[in-house]
Write a structure and sequence with these properties.
Blueprint (H helix, E strand, L loop, with lengths): L8 H9 L7 H11 L4 E4 L6 H15 L9 E4 L3 H14 L7 E4 L5 H9 L4 E4 L1 H9 L10 E4 L2 H6 L3 H9 L6 E6 L7 H8 L4 E4 L10 E7 L3 H14 L4 E6 L2 H13 L4 E4 L5 H13 L4 E5 H4 L7 E6 L6 H8 L9 E7 L4 H11 L4 E2 L14 H4 L9 H21 L20 H11 L11
Parallel strand pairs: 1-6, 1-7, 2-4, 2-5, 3-4, 5-6, 8-13, 8-14, 9-11, 9-12, 10-11, 12-13
Helix pairs in contact: 2-3, 3-4, 15-17
The structure holds adenosine-5'-diphosphate and magnesium ion.
Amino acid sequence: MFSELSLHERLLKALDELSFTEATPVQSAVLPKAMDKKDLMVCSETGSGKTAAFLLPALNHFQDNPAPQSSTRMLILVPTRELARQVFDECEKLTRYTFIKTGLITGGDDFRHQVNTLRKNPEVLIATPGRLLEQMDNSNTDFSDLEYLILDEADRMLDFGFSPDMIRIASECRPERQTMLFSATLKQKGMVELIKLVLNEPESLMLSTARDKHENIHHQMMLADDHAHKEKLTRWLLENETFEKAIVFTNKRLHADQLCAKLRYHDLRVGVLHGEMDHSERKRMMGMLAAGQINILVATDVAARGLDIKGIELVINFEMARNGDDYVHRVGRTGRAGEKGVAISLVDHAEWNLTSSIERYLKTRFEKRSIKELRGSWKGPKKLKASGKAAGTKKKKSSDSKKTTVGKQRLRDKKKTGKRRAPAKDGSDASAKKSPAKSQTSSKAVDAGFEPMKRKKS
Ligand code: ADP
Ligand code: MG
């Protein structure tokens, strides 16, 4: 219960209005330790309520200890603009009955306007690293009084190549600050270094991780012959399933646009979200979905990562996610805050091995499902026939070699599952193609809706 945590009554009032009656597990774990001024690294699944977990201790402290002469008191770094906006909105709701002010500094928004925001000296600043550094380079920020530094979705920030930016920003913050890092995994490459450089003897709180399957999400799969068959299945599902809102994931921007157009043609209320769209366009889409003007969003991974949209009850993977972590992030758009959700993956023959490896990664089995009138000709692989039966027969040699190939394939998939593949520079949002590391980072960064790491010096 929040009331047991001796939170200020103005915060309790806001919590009540938000219908946050019980603290979620991550909130129960984090709040007392954070109020004890400890540095924390917290592992917790998406949708578990991390935002309030890091906001409430700080807001409570500011409410009890006003310091109008202080410069920025809390800095929250997040990987994407959309997430920054969500954290900003939640902070505004929680501070409704207080005098605490919040500022938002993200790429894509007007630079001068942000300078004005910074001049007003809000207690809480929410920012994406790239734009914040530009403001810092122009001496528009002051973190010499900083009390709280939050790295939200630290794993994603590492993925996007923000590690040097985070380290530099942290080095300009008051050393006595309290730092809290939130991540779906702490096993990421570069995480140890980041923790060492930015946190001070942190305590680690491991709640359920991204890999634990969400208990309230029903995982299903459907076999599909090809792209055209997938389009028919998607349309059928969107016309026949019961849901308030749905997200359909594609792996490529082009596919997202094409699918959106086709579904619209069939009078479905669909919008699209991908990294090629400009900021205002994406904002408009999110607004339409929130307001219910559209109830279906066709999206690519990076554009939709971390978004918290109320009422998403159905996630369709038009194309299978490229690895276990991406799958978890996709389906994490549903089943949030205890709600129920269904995730349906459309799997063609080329995606079979990947799907099995994701099942193994999640330690779960997807329920197989088919639609009577849309049954395809592909019924899944014949691997069982190929192994076992042939042992001891004349064809032993060839069957053995076949078995080995299957084994190798599996092992390879297993290795890649759960690891993120670096994105490519081409049209896909995070392609399996290899391209040089530098361009990968910036391409993904751009797609994620923020400025690339290397900025031009003007
Ligand atoms: P995370 O950052 O862990 O992915 P969020 O902080 O975005 O999760 O929270 C997910 C959803 O749960 C949000 O819609 C949020 O408003 C809601 N939520 C958070 N805490 C509570 C609570 N104590 N009770 C009810 N809903 C909550
Ligand atoms: Mg979050």
